[in-house]
Structures are given as C-alpha cells and as structure tokens.
Amino acid sequence: MANELPAPNSLVPGRFPGSDASSDPRNDVVTFLGMLLSHWKLILLGGLLSLGVTYYRLSQQLPQYTSEVLLMKTEASPLTASGLGTDRRSVDDDFASQVEIIRSRVVMAAVVDSLGLALQFIDHPRYQSRILDQVQVDRDPDTGRYQIGFARGRLALLDGQGEVLDTASDDGWLEGPGFRFHVAEPEAARADPIWFMVRSPDRAAETLRRRIEAGPGKSMDIIRVSYTDPDPERSARVVNVVAQVYRDLRARSAREAARARRMFLADQVAALSDSLRVAQNDILAFQQQERVLHPESEGSALTTALFQAESERQRLRLDERLMETLVEGARDGAQNVSELQRLVAMGREVLPDGDGMYSRLQQLETERSRLTASQFGYTERSSQVQVVDSLIAATRTQVRIAAEQSLLLLRERVAAVEVRIADLRRRLSEAPQRSTDFARMQQRVDAVQSALLPLVGRYYEARVAEAVQLGDVELVDQAPTPLNPDPEHRGLKLAIALFAGVLLSSGGVGLRYYFSTTVRRREDVESATGLPVFGFIPHLDISPKNGAARFAGVEAFRALAANLRLATPVHPKVIAVTSAMPKDGKSTVAANLALTMVQQGSRTLLIEADLRRPTVHKTFAISQSPGLTDVLLGNVGLDVAIRRIEAYELDVITAGSDFDNPPSLLGSTAFSELMDHVRAEYDVVIIDTNPILAVADASLLCSQVTGVVLTVRANRTDRMAVVQCMEQIRRARGTIIGVVLSDIPSGPAGYSYYRLGTYGYEHTREAEDGERTAHERRRPLIGSWSRPVN
User: Fold this and answer.
1) Alpha-carbon distance 138 to 178, whole Å?
2) Is the overall model pTM greater than 0.70, yes or no?
3) Is the pLDDT of residue 253 over 50?
4) What residue spans of 530-572 are helical by DSSP H?
C-alpha cells in the first residue's frame, strides 16, 4: 500500500499539466473573481468600515428641515411684447437661465444681507432664528468665532478668548466689529455661552448658492426653489426671501429694459421725424420748381390738352380751306349769285357778319329773280336789274374782303395751335421723368411715415411699461415654516454605504491585483521563466478531516514526480529544489517530493543543504546533528549522518551542526565526493537548498546536480525575482528541469484552474482505508502552507 502525503488545508479541482486552459477567454474573469473571493474578508471589512463611518456621521447629523416655494413664469406683458423685438424674454429666457439667475451671486448676496446669514450659530443652529431675530453684517466684517454670554450679570458679546466686546443695551442689541444683532431670548445664553461664527458675506453667499436647490415643477413654467437647514424658521425665511429678491430683480430688469427701449424709441422717433421733414421739404421745392401740384395729374391734363389742341388744329385747317375757297369764289366771281350764296352759307360761322351777308345776298337774289322772272319782267340792262347787280357786286366784294381777313385770322390761329401742340408734346415727353422723381420723393415720405407711426405708438407704450412694469414672475405658493424634519432614509443610506464600501474594497483589491508583480497563474511563471510549469501544488494543511483535500495533495505530488521522470531523456538522480526568495515553499516541495519517490518504489535520500535556516529536522521531528556539516568537516561518517525515517521508509541527512561559512563547505571537494557516493547508492537524491537570491550557497550546488527544480509560490513570489533567479542558475551552469507553482489557493480561479481535484477520491479512500495499518495512520504529516517552511 502506498503511503499518504501531508494533508492539504483546502484544495480545489483544476486541470492537469499540459492542458491549454489559457486559451479560454473567460479565465481572466474567473481568475479575477477567484481573487475577490480569496480576499472576501478584506472586502467585507471595507464594507463594514464604510457602514460604521456612515452610521457615525448619520448619528451626528442634526434633523434637517426643507422649505419649498413655487414661482411661475408668466407671459410677457402686451406692452413689453410689442417692443422692437429686443425684449424676447418669453423666448430666450429658458428654464435653465432662470435657475442660474435664481442661484446667481446677485440674488444670493441680497438674501445674505437681508437675513444676516453671514452670522452662523455653531452649537445651536436649530434655534438661531428664535434667539436672534435681527442680524446685520457689514461687507467686510472681522471674521472669526464669538460668544453670546453674560458678563457681570448683563448680556454680552465676547470674542473667542472670552474678552467682552460689548454689553447689551436696553433694547437688546449687541454690536461687534463689522456686525450687530438683536437677541430676542437672552436667557438662552445664561447657562452656557452660545458660540457663533462670522464669515464674509461673499463666502456666505457662495455657501448659500451651493445649498439652494432649484428645479422644474410639473411644467416648465413652474420653478421649485427649496432650501434645507437645521433651523425650520430660517429654512422658510430663506426661500421666501430668495423668491422675493428674484421677483424684484426680474421687475427691475423689466423696468430697465422698458426704460432703455423708451430711450431708444425716442431717439428713433426724433431721427425719423427729421427725415420726414426733409423729405416733405424736397417735395415742396419740386412742386414749386416744376409748377405742378402732382406730376401724374399733370400728365393726364397734358394728354387731354394735346388731344383738344390737335382737334382744334384740324377744325381750323378745315375752316382755312373753306375760307380759301370762299376767297377764290369771291375774287374770281361765282357763276351766279346762288353759288356765292352757297359759299357764304358754308363759311358764315367763321366769316365776320356772315349771317348778314348771307341774308343780304339771299334778298338780292330774290329781288333779281322777281325783276327778271316774268315775260314782262326787266331785262338785265334795265336800270332796276343793274342796281340789283351792282348791289350784288358790292356784297361780293364785301364777302371777298371779309373772307380774306378771316383767312388771315384762321392761319394765325392754326400757327398758334401748332406752337401750343409742340409745347404740349414737349411737356408731355418730360412728364415721366418728373413723375418718377416725384414718386421717388413721395415713396421716401411714405417710407418714413410708415416707420415713424408704429414707433410713436411703441414709444408711448414703452413709457407706460416703464411706469407700471412688475416683471414676469409670480409667487404661486409661499413657503410655510416646516413642522416635521425631513425623512432621513437611514436604512437606505446605510445600505448604500455598505455597498459602496464593498465596491471600493473590491476596486482596491482589483487594482492591487492589476498592478501586482507577484506570480498568480501558470502564464505568469511561463512568461518569466520561458519554461513550462510541470508541477501544480495546492494549498496544504495538516488537518486530517478533509479527506478530499488530502487526496488532491497526494495526486499533485504524484503528478510532479511523474513529470520529473518525463522532463529529461535521462532519469534525473540528483535533484536540487530551490526558490528565488525565502518562504516560497521549497522545503515543503522537497520533502513531499522525496516521500512521493519512496511511495513509487525509488530508494530516495533527502539532503538538507540549507545550512543557514534548516527545517528538515523539524519536519521529521529529529535532531539537527549529526548532519551534512559534520560529514563535510570529517567529524562523523556518512553512515552516521544518514538517518532512516521508518514511518516513511525515507533516508534523510539533516543540516548538521551550525557553521559560519556554508559556501566553503558546499564548494569543497568533500561535498563533490559525497555527491558521487550518494549518486551511486540511491535511485533519487533530493537536495533542499538555500533560496537562490538570498545567499550564494545554492549557486554552488547547481553545477553538481542533475537538474534544478525551481519552486514559485503563488501570490507571493515576485516575477522579477523569478527572472533574476533563472539568470543566476544559468550563470552557475545549472540545468533547470522545470518550475513548480506551489501554494495555489482554493477558489474558482485557484487550484481548479489546473487540476481535476478529487476525481476518483471515494474509490481510492475505501480501498486504502481497508489496507492502511495502524502504524501508517499514525505517520506524522509534514509541510503546511498555514505554517510556511522554506
């Protein structure tokens, strides 16, 4: 029956050496989670610490009272809205800008000055409004801590050292350097002085600005302004004064805007009035120069006059041709009196005395016809007929003369009409330009008037708005003094504090994990050494109750022994087990590896070559001497130094007596001869050496052994130390067989990452329990990560 190895404390399943678990992208997450689980105590401690701090702070806080006031943004006044477009507050003043104005330094400074918030109680802030009903603080007070107390039986103001600065007068006022206040309840300071602090108003305004909360109501027209304070009366007074100051500021801004608008409109009205006066004077000068009232009406009149003149000219030309015919007929003589009478009748309208001459010719023609009409009438030679003919000839001469005069007059009239027609045509050709000039001047007048008339109306509206403007903010609901303190939600705050503490602790552990240079996984070892890890040793513990863990430890060292045999073509007989730094577990690995070799049937010798801090004698509960130093010094023989551990059937050489210069012994010829002797006597020789980087002892052994096994302890050994250790072994001409990753913690990212754990444990336990002798059950367990050995 095979002997068992020391029982591990807590071992978890993992993968066998050589399996490619690193190809799984979930391994980093699993490793990180396992790391968090392995530090659960630290994480829980961080959460509990945060919980305790939060609970202490909550217990020290005073009850808080919150007051809230509602403001409503109203529509712009019609007087304001009808301005020039420069006052567009209903469009441009969005909710965010109003909130910024409420929390501005202008509003906050006015509130601080109004309520005297630069003076703050230290001991009894809840009763400040009750004790002090009036406070006045200058812009530059003497800041610091003061007291309200009694001195010589009178209410007094004291400085921080207790010196009296002022005593109260009959009206209860106290005055300090840059501030004064009225004490409404002097008896409150009789038992103990009341401490208060005076700050600069600017600093108090900044503090108030941070504590004032402004947010939207159910609509964007509603603004909620709230303030929280230990003093309920002051809480209500602050928000009410903030609302009033904001309303006054908006009203003042509106009045200033109306005044600026009125002044601007006045300037514009004056400028446009001057422009209108100039334009009207230009029209008047144009009318006087052109002697026309309106060019458009003048063009119509000229057209009518031209048409009439051309009609008159045509009529006169007809009359002229008629007169020319009449003159010719009267000059050459007509064939008879009837012909002349017809001509006279045709032109009697234009012939002077034409009707009289026509009547006279008609009478003479009638008289001549009467005289010559019958057979008994007169002949043309008769005196009566000749008298009539002479009268007709005289009348014809008169007609000719009158016709010639009329013809001359008609020709003069035609010439005058021609001149008038030419003048009308010239004036009519110039009329469009005058009309254009006049229209341009008239348009200028109309444009100035169209701009001036609305400005005049807006000017008078601005004057009215300047006088009556009240702003565009209304106080919907004034804040009353709160009767009950705000809910503390202590349970929720404590839960959040616990969660935040756990989260921060996890983050700190994660950062430590991320920036840590210690070896945690197989990949870290392989990247540092360039060699594969051929041994994975779980966390060991000597507790006999965890059978599964004991089985996992046995299997881990069996796998390590098997990998040692497969690591090199020639079976290694002398193996040095070392590490980079102390407490990396090399002695535990060396002792258990030696026991495993014995269990597998090899005659094995374990040599303690760590002469500075030996542990093998403690592991197997034997004396340190005689041992290796005694043999090398020739004090005892090798057969005396080799001691048999019957419980394990293992031969052991302990360190021996203390020696001041171990390198001189390990580098001596005697040690080389010892190695040759044990190499011939034993199948396997395991040497527990010093840490490589601690002292130079182990470097002297590297060239005298078949191979070196480097032990790296998970979550402890630094990667740079591993790299330096590898370089040191190579410089010492040692052969590195492989690397062992030891003390792998439990958890999902621990030993289960490398091994199959307790597969087959139940069957093996039943078989071995039946065969194990009482002597074997009493065998001591060696090696423990809970009590680290070198």
Assistant:
1) 5
2) no
3) yes
4) 547-567
